[in-house]
Amino acid sequence: MDRANLNRWPYLPGMQKTVAVLTMLGRLLGVIQILVGLAIWFGFAARTVAFHMAVGSLFVLVLWIVGLIALFVLDKRGVALFTLLWGGFVLWLGMAQTTLFIGTGHWVVRLAHLLVGMAAIGLVDSLGRAMKTHYAATASAPSAA
Length: 145
Ligand code: HEM
Fold this sequence. Notes:
Elements: H1 3-6, H2 16-41, H3 49-73, H4 78-96, H5 106-140
């Protein structure tokens, strides 16, 4: 089956709402991560590290689901593939966070963790937007059937 027909596969158009909800969830979890993370960084919320790790893992799960759907829905797969790999990197960096460059250089790891996380939020957001555009274009295109 060629990709044009694959996009008309019955289940994928029905994913439109799922994609919208997952994208919103990704943005929400991402914002929570930035706020809680900054609170941890500036010493207001040392007790919330476990919560931050749980929400971060959930965020990566959402990112992987969005990336997987995008892999099948979008005509260009590069960003979706990169997002799937980036999710693994976010998770690894988060888990290894407290063990890297301990000492005066640790701020570099902290900054890298923040930037890597923000990039992940941006990737979820752009895949969500790209799929929204794709679904709108597919809906308005005349059917070949
Ligand atoms: C959108 C994703 C994420 C963002 C924006 C984010 C942001 C932050 C920020 C700003 C900090 C404070 C600075 C620092 O110590 O690095 C932090 C701390 C931390 N993050 Fe994340 N994070 C994300 C995902 C994750 C994930 C997936 C994990 C692990 C599963 C994780 C684990 C941690 C840990 C353990 C700390 C505390 C480090 C310490 O005690 O110094 N984060 N995060």
